[in-house]
Amino acid sequence: MAQAVGTNEMTTALALTLPQGIELDTAPSETLVAASPGWAEDVATHFGKRAIRSEEGPFSLPESLVGDVERERSFTKCIADVKGFRDLPLNWDTYGGLPAKEEPIRFSIELLNCLQSEIDISTPHVAPISSGVYVEWRNNGAILYFEVDEESVLYVMKRHGRTVAEGEDSRFSVAPAIELVERFHTLAP
């Protein structure tokens, strides 16, 4: 259990009592600094016995490890948001917008679930469109988006304003979409 021992606007200093079997690579007098009160429990639960000393503070985890916890939370939130698009009221956008249909929701959730475990894939922005779901990634002047409605999946990938790929898939196949997202994340800036 972590206990707050001092705070300011930016951080909370924690005195950490770890579950049995969890060890930290440091002297007991050093303090663990965390960005949020639930951080220590997340570390113990998610990463088990790993704690790493760094130049940035007495204890920290590499960005990729800390990012994994945040990444999981952000993908989980995206999936919950997509599920909620089916419950939107009629005319939700004041332009006659309809709630998302089941096929666009299924495709979007399947895509997000498949990509969630890919370390090099960032969390997308999701938004409702009439009868469907909009999924978008942005990175270094590049954009990839999917407009998923009840009839098809429209995709567009641009880099610095120039279209790199575009098309439409009426089969709602997730495999080509995953390949496109992976390709997008490997584009040189």
Quickly list its features.
189 residues, alpha+beta, 2 domains, five-stranded antiparallel sheet, three-stranded antiparallel sheet, 4 helices, 30% helix
Summarize this, please?
This protein has 189 residues and is of the alpha+beta class.
The residue fraction in helices comes out at: 25-40%
The average pLDDT value, as a whole number, equals 75
Count of helical stretches: 4
First CA to last CA: what distance?
43 Å
Query: Any idea how many domains?
Result: 2
The description of the largest β-sheet is: 5 strands, antiparallel
Q: State which percent range the strand residues make up.
A: 25-35%
| Cα-based radius of gyration, to the nearest Å | 21 Å
Provide the succession of SSEs: EEEHEEHHEEEEEH
**Annotation, overall tally of beta strands:** 10
Give an overview of the whole structure:
By secondary structure, the protein is α+β, with helices and mostly antiparallel strands. The protein folds into two domains: 2-61, no CATH class; 72-185, no CATH class. It is 30% helix and 30% strand. It is built from four helices and ten strands, in the order βββαββααβββββα. The chain has helices spanning 39-47, 63-84, 102-115, 174-185; strands spanning 2-7, 12-16, 32-34, 52-54, 57-60, 125-129, 132-139, 142-148, 153-159, 162-169. Strands 6-7-8-9-10 form a five-stranded antiparallel beta sheet. Strands 1-2-3 form a three-stranded antiparallel beta sheet, covered by helices on one side. Strands 4-5 form a two-stranded antiparallel sheet. Mean pLDDT is 75; it is low at 1-66.
